[in-house]
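Appendix B: a complete holo record

For completeness, this appendix reproduces one full record from the ligand-bound portion of the collection. The bound molecule is pyridoxal-5'-phosphate. The inputs are the chain sequence and the ligand SMILES; the output is the full three-dimensional arrangement of the complex, encoded as structure tokens. No fields have been trimmed.
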Amino acid sequence: MPGDTPALSPATVVVHAGRPPHEADQPLNAPIQMASTYVAGGALEYGRYANPTWSAFEEALGALEGGRALAFSSGLAAVSTVLDLVGQDGVVVAPRHAYLGSIGQLGELEARGRLKAVLVDIADTDAVIAELDDAALLWIESPTNPALEVADVQRLVEAGHEAGASVVVDNTFATPLMQKPLELGADIVLHSVTKFLAGHSDVVMGALVVQDQQLYDVLKGRRDLVGAIPGTLESWLALRGLRTLHLRVERSQANAAELARRLSEHGAFAEVRYPGFGAVIAVVLPTAEAADVLTHSTSLWVHATSLGSVESTFERRRRWKGEATTIPEGLVRMSVGIEDVEDLWADLEQALERT
Ligand SMILES: *Cc1c(COP(=O)(O)O)cnc(C)c1O
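The structure of the chain with pyridoxal-5'-phosphate bound, as generated:
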């Protein structure tokens, strides 16, 4: 990137990082380079090791998070790659309300005798610290999906390192625009690129970002060996989506804050959870039935899983078998998009009348 100034604002980095050089006849965007193999003797060699389209995405995300990024085939492929680093019988301390796939992997690895998972309330800093003594890895997700608990990332990173644990932060909900875990000392940042980074409900992809060269090499070596690589087209779409991250997050966050305020004043809910930033709200209806009526009574809001896209989506989380039983049956996770907030509210208001 020309003029590689570290002081650039994230809004500029998002637009400029990972572009070809400003030279005659260079395209402005990294091309979609479909290749399984390259002429021998260079840096790329084979399509499982490298691809210039992934590299462009990695360069942009690395610049945003302040480290070096590795793209993966999905967020869960990135989760699996990190958990692979934990030695036999290693202890992993993780949020009890982490993403259900992350919890699922921990549970499965524990059942196979690979490691020990200790699940904690990640918002209760003292309780987390109390479990860190024997930990090999502290897993932070903040805000959590879908409970929206917020962790004291800086304090937990310090405590994790004091206890000799590595620390990974799943930064999917906050995005690097709101939280930069590497600056807070974390060893690894994890993303489901599928969500806010790509942002258009058309890509499944994941990423890890680190600062330490040795750790980068280990994770890259793991990806080379296991082959959990992203598709070339997906990488291109993810980078295309990333270019507007700041605008999308700004708008969807403003919409979410306004909707959270109105939902809190509405009488229909046992609880409205909004951490005060981000674009995800969780509302708790009195029953699963009322939640199902809500998610089936709208015309703009789409009943669908996933989050972080331009369009507003929502779902009752307990419809998934793997969701923690401590998540209320009537909890609906709402991912607020970038539409007009009055249109979103009118659609919700008429649906709420039916619950
Ligand atoms: C969706 C999600 C994941 C998993 O990512 P995929 O891209 O779906 O594999 C991990 N963490 C969080 C917080 C998520 O929301």
